[in-house]
Design goal:
The chain is α+β, with helices and mostly antiparallel strands and about 400 residues long. It folds into 2 domains: about 220 residues, Rossmann fold (3-Layer(aba) Sandwich), CATH 3.40.50.300; about 140 residues, RNA polymerase II/Efflux pump adaptor protein, barrel-sandwich hybrid domain (OB fold (Dihydrolipoamide Acetyltransferase, E2P), Beta Barrel), CATH 2.40.50.100. The protein has 9 helices and 20 strands.
Amino acid sequence: MIRGEPLRLKQLCKHYGSARAVHEVSVDIEAGEFVSFLGPSGSGKTTTLMMVAGFETPTSGQIFVGSRPVTNLPVHKRDIGVVFQSYALFPHLSVFENVAFALKMRGKTGSELKAGVSEALQAVQLDGFEQRMPHQLSGGQQQRVALARALVFRPGVVLMDEPLGALDKQLREHMQIELKRLQKSLGTTMVFVTHDQSEALTMSDRIVVMNNGQVEQVGTPEEIYEDPNTRFVASFIGESNFVDAQVVQMTDSGPLLDIGGLKVRAAAQDIERQPKSVTLMIRPEKVIPIANGMRADNEFEGVVQEAIYWGNVVKYRILLPASRPIVLTASVPFHAMSPRFDVDDRIKIGWDARDGRLLLDETLDNASATLQSNQMGLSTLQLSTGAH
């Protein structure tokens, strides 16, 4: 078993002239933890990884592996394993020779080298493939060879830069499960860079969401999805309804909101002040059809504007009877017992107060920009697809 080591990033910055690629990133990663850095292209996640690996020099800040400061150490002295998206296998070397390369660079020879390679290949379930060449392997097998090469010298930290990006969807999902299983069985600390939200949610113990070179939020997958701190986090991870609202009253159970003349209850949240304007965020799967006998904290009757079949769910866009156009998206599971609705049907929908999240401060400017850019005039809600 590999002894995972803690990884600490302290106010890490990287500037290219006047361009700020990474700004004051501070994250503490525990030994044996699987942490994903998630964000769109240009968010700074790969640059952060390259600084940890030693391929980029920080403008300022510090990097610690365990108690060792490694900020100024060369790559080969950090004892950090790295797996790239391209796998970077040597095409003229066999599987055995590719995996053995890291040990040879560290002076290992003979039986010690053979035993190390054998153990690494067994860990990734490729024993018996020693003499194959990279072009004789599938994409998933090449990815596992690259992982074996990163693990063979028993690093306390392994960095992975979008290693599953070149695989097809089915194989990628299979490898997500395999990677998570392997990481837990070996006990190594793994830092995984991805722009794929579902990948991060599936594999991570914690997620570091990055945007514009800075950390937007750090938390467990559930915390990031259910309780996003900002509009960016809410829109980048999963789908969201965003509705401009006014706080009209603060009650013991939470704020009472006004959205176009409709009164909406929200759960109590850590709000230091009583804001006048907020953005109410509701996940589409939290908006449900209200059948006879059912009750919800917030119930409204609307008209179905659109119904889209997605296989396991049907997504309905529903116009509410507010003083200004408000359209909510509801994701309804599709099965034999689920209700079906057509365009122009009247439908009663609702959601629990606890399922609404209030987004404050810097999120409001973004909300206003979204309103102005909505060509259809349905100005108080945008469906975020998470594609950035």
